[in-house]
Amino acid sequence: MTLPHIIPGKPRGILLVCDHASNAVPDGIDLGIAPALLEKHIAIDIGSAALTESLASTLQAPALLATLSRLVTDLNRPTDHPGLIPLSSDGHAIPGNATADRTDRVARFHAPYHDALAALIVETQPVLVAAIHSFTPRLEQGDGGPRPWEIGILSNTDRRAADLALPLLAAQGLVTGDNEPYSGQLLNATLDRHGEDNGIASLSIEIRNDLIADPAGVRRWTAILAPILRDISNRLASGDLPTQ
Question: DSSP 3-state assignment of 181?
Fold first, then answer.
């Protein structure tokens, strides 16, 4: 069993989640890949852990961070999703996963993570769950072009937090994507389960990873996002939502 890292914080406000915070591979698992691949985005959301920790400190918000690589088990996927234990990622084969025991991986990694998050939600009663992710400027494989967004806000059917966040980010002059570079209607398992299913407003924040790859970038984005998240949380708590 591998447990997530939990940062304590003030209840009834913001809860931060970082599904892809780590590139660790637990003992006894051989992915069959070159060690250099663990430094790539396929293994970890580059900069996401540092940004989550910085935001948690600034906001005094509780946070939950994964402690294993998504190449072992992608915690932001349903247990029946083909990408839960990826056989390849962005053109790189993960041969060690071909014989992986799905039941074992779910029991050891996926279930403890989501059980811990469910318990933390009960304990802290957040009004906003914010998942912190990062994305690559462009994919290594395929014909996809450069991704121009500095930040993307992902949401599924509950748009409360996203509709508050998007104009605040645009007002900062940021190149902001709404369900870009991919859609929260497709890739949103953690927030679907722990946010929408509980009636808690949520959003996934995707930062282009070259912008948070060093401490200066993390400080800059903490200064941008902390007051925006605080404003969203306060407005959700007071019922001050945008009109449709």
Answer: coil
Please report the domains of the chain, with CATH numbers, ordered by start residue. 5-238 (3.40.630.40)
Written as one string, the DSSP assignment of 117-162 is HHHHHHHH--SEEEEEEEE-SS-SSSS------SEEEE-SS--HHH
The pTM of this model reads 0.96
Distance CA 30, CA 36 (A): 14
Q: What is the pLDDT of residue 214?
A: 98
Side chain identity at residue 209, one-letter code: N
Question: pLDDT per residue over 117-149, tens digit each?
Answer: 999 999 999 999 999 999 999 876 766 688 999
Q: How far apart are alpha carbons 31 and 41 in whole angstroms?
A: 16
> How confident is the model over 99-117, as pLDDT tens digits?
999 999 999 999 999 999 9
* CA distance linking residue 173 with residue 19, whole number of Å: 28
